[in-house]
Amino acid sequence: MGKAFGSAYGNEINWVQAGAAQNTWYEISDADMEDGELHLINHDGSGELTVIQAGYYLATYSVCLDDSDNNDHAEAGFYVDGAAVDAGQQHDETGRAGDHLAMSSTTILKLTAISTVAVCVRTIDATGPDFEVHHLNLTLTQAGWD
C-alpha cells in the first residue's frame, strides 16, 4: 500500500474574498484547482485534500495573494478539518495597495483518518481589504504513522 501522498494546484485561479473581516480565516476554495499526484489522498476539486490514513504528514503550501490595502498585514496557513492551525502560519505586509504577496510554509501535521487539509488566509488589520488568489499549491506527504 505504501505511504500516502497527494497534491492540488491552481494556476491562474480567480479566488476572491471581498471586504475581509479582521481576524477571520477564509478557506481558499476554487473550482479551477487541479489534481496533482494522488495516492491514498483525495482531492475535492476545489483545493481541499482528504487523507485516508491517520499519521504524520509533511505539509507544504505556496500561495500568491493580492491585497487591495496599503500597509495591510495578511497571513496564510493550513486549514485542518475546518479550522486554521498555528503550525505553518506565515505573514507578510503590503507596502501599497494591490501588492502581490507570495507566502509559503512547511510543517508536520498529525492527522486522523478522513482529515481534510486546505489553505486559508486572513488579515489582522481592521481595514477590510479585498484578497485575490491567483496561484496556490498544496502538498501532503505521509512521513509516518501514529
Architecture blueprint of SSEs:
Elements lengths: L4 E13 L8 E2 L6 E6 L1 E3 L5 E3 L3 E13 L5 E8 L2 E2 L5 E4 L5 E13 L4 E8 L7 E14 L2
Antiparallel strand pairs: 1-3, 1-12, 2-11, 4-5, 5-11, 6-10, 6-12, 7-8, 7-9, 7-11
What is this structure, in a nutshell?
The protein is mostly beta strands. It has strands spanning 5-17, 26-27, 34-39, 41-43, 49-51, 55-67, 73-80, 83-84, 90-93, 99-111, 116-123, 131-144.
Which descriptors would you attach to this protein?
mainly beta; Jelly Rolls; 7-stranded antiparallel beta sheet; 61% strand
Classify the fold: give the CATH topology: Jelly Rolls
Main sheet: strands, sense, barrel? 7 strands, antiparallel
Radius of gyration, CA atoms, in whole angstroms: 15 Å
Mean pLDDT, rounded to whole units? 95
Which range best describes the helical content: under 10%, 10-25%, 25-40%, 40-55%, 55-70% or over 70%?
A: under 10%
| Shape descriptor | elongated
Q: Give me the count of strands.
A: 12
Instruction: State the low-pLDDT regions, or none.
Output: none
Assigned CATH architecture? Sandwich
Description of the structure:
Strands 2, 4, 5, 7, 8, 9 and 11 form a seven-stranded antiparallel beta sheet that branches. Strands 3-1-12-6-10 form a five-stranded antiparallel beta sheet, with no helix packed on it. It has no helices and twelve strands. The chain has a single domain (5-18, 27-106, 132-144), classed as Jelly Rolls (Sandwich), CATH 2.60.120. It has strands at 5-17, 26-27, 34-39, 41-43, 49-51, 55-67, 73-80, 83-84, 90-93, 99-111, 116-123, 131-144. The protein is mostly beta strands. Strand 4 and strand 5 form a beta hairpin. The model has no long low-confidence stretch (mean pLDDT 95). The relative contact order is 0.35. The two termini are 17 Å apart.
